[in-house]
## 1
Amino acid sequence: MNTTVAPIAQLSSVVKRYGNLTAVDQLDLMLHRGELLALLGPNGAGKSTAIGLLLGLNRADEGKVELFGRDPQDIMARRRIGVMLQEAALPATLKVGELIRVTASYYPAPRSLQESAELAGVADLLQRPYGKLSGGQKRRVQFALALCGRPELLFLDEPTVGMDIEARQKLWAAIRHLISEGCSVVLTTHYLEEAEALADRVCVIARGKVISEGTVDDLRARVSLKRVRCVTRLPIEQLMHWPDVVEARMDAGRAWMSTANAEALVRRLLHADEQLSELEVQRAGLAEAFTELTRDAAQANDTEREAA
Ligand SMILES: Nc1ncnc2c1ncn2[C@@H]1O[C@H](COP(=O)(O)OP(=O)(O)OP(=O)(O)O)[C@@H](O)[C@H]1O
């Protein structure tokens, strides 16, 4: 990926307010050609607002927003993007094939109906009225509409909500295919394994600000937590109160703990349960990194407020 060329989408020191609420607060965001940027953050963090700004659906109160070096409302920029938002109001009576055909007609060099349908996994739904589809099928049709114009940049706002595991994995494969063709993607998701599976770069947003940014490995390395798993007779209710245990739960018959001091925890576990087996220690995943980063940001925010 060449990051020396101009970014294809950019927010520079952008502020967006809704009344007294600052949804996006001095946000800087940059997207380069051919990369998949995942925006992560708790509910209400400002991810959809940031996407709305890049799409020209919201106007910034301060700062600069650019899409292909232009104003996001410029038709020349808009023709180069595909969009799948969280909610889509599409005519219920139109058949899936008709919807894709109409949408594709707005673009200068669209994919064929067959190619769009196959990429999105909706080839068997083309004759069905959109309104009669299941939630997961509707999401796949919305994905077909997002990609049918052969966009250079795709915005996917929580694309796999409501999809079963097989449909989700097919959509991930389709996204990888689009990226291999040179398409860039901005993705928001609450499924951290989705970001882990797809993202070149992850940007964690909380309260309208970027609190951490880097590759999935960078973010993992930034937190000190490790995962400890084992089969033990020690009750989980007891383990969750041990010193150094940040989180503890049962998962598929095993105790699962996260800790910043794996050595001390392992010593204590072996001492307390001589029958303990299947012990595993692993680096934290993106899920633990995300929990720790957003918790730290919330604590820093509280400390700032108390000091003010
Ligand atoms: N049109 C609006 N009017 C008023 N407040 C809004 C509007 N849109 C968003 N907000 C508020 O702005 C903040 C950021 O919302 P946003 O939808 O961008 O968050 P998000 O990170 O996408 O959340 P989620 O993960 O729940 O989708 C929230 O507090 C939300 O209530």
## 2
Amino acid sequence: MASKREKISDSCSRCLSSKASTQDGKARVRRVSIEGNIAVGKSTFARLLQSACPDWEVMAEPVSHWQNIEGGTSKGTGASPQTTVSNLLQMMYQDPLRWSYTFQTYSCMSRLRTQLQPPPARLLSSEGTPVQVYERSVYSDRYIFALNMFELGCINSTEWAVYQNWHSFLVEQFGHQVELEGIIYLKAPPKKCMERLENRGRAEEKGVELDYLDKLHVQHERWLVEKTTEIHFEKIKQIPVLQLDASVEFQSDPEVREQFITKVKTFFNTL
Ligand SMILES: Nc1ncnc2c1ncn2[C@@H]1O[C@H](COP(=O)(O)OP(=O)(O)OP(=O)(O)O)[C@@H](O)[C@H]1O
Ligand SMILES: Nc1nc(=O)c2ncn([C@H]3C[C@H](O)[C@@H](CO)O3)c2[nH]1
């Protein structure tokens, strides 16, 4: 009997679109980000996608980098130099006024690095619809988190002006390399995200309150549903968005998982 993974992969090859090639005969790799509130289930959903189709490459959000920033070596009193390690995620949650701007510079830089990684060879030689899937993006860094921190007063107007200036410069300089073809928006009520956040129990998030998740929810709705957020990049203004109801418990229900995968495949084939 075929395993679940084989089953999903079989159905994957059954609904391939014809190969869209570039001039050098390589497959055109689509780039899609998964967006959504904290603990809505992006990483969980990303793992589902990774196991569903070999043509999809999922790139995780680099949270562990934010939790372990190696500082310079500190010279003690004669003892061997020690490397200091700081947890910027924790610092940002503990003292957002002091650390939010620093956090956004680092998170955005790490997202940029992720989005600049070339697709693996297996995607370039794919006969199907190869897709690089990112957990969040340089766009949510600005239009969800940094904007929210500015509106909360944790980033002041000078910091916000500086952030926007270098963000626009970098995105324009890297141009096509950091564009996206689509966005998957995982949506759930903030209360559901709060439940999941508490169950997950990530130490740095102990002080996160429902009000913060409410505000992030509003930012996602403004950007991806109402389209009232001012966006500064033409392609991102018109980007196709697949909205999925992430409040359903797909982990325990194979049918729900299949439905999600089918929707995602159909979406990818339109990009
Ligand atoms: N559909 C789901 N049904 C039930 N529980 C879920 C579902 N998706 C995720 N979870 C659980 O919710 C918690 C948060 O999920 P996950 O870590 O995937 O969220 P995330 O959106 O990636 O979080 P973050 O915003 O911090 O990156 C985990 O404990 C996970 O097991
Ligand atoms: N302030 C802030 N800016 C960001 O760009 C950002 N991206 C993610 N996060 C927080 C949410 C989760 O706790 C945790 C993992 O997603 O990190 C962010 N926080």
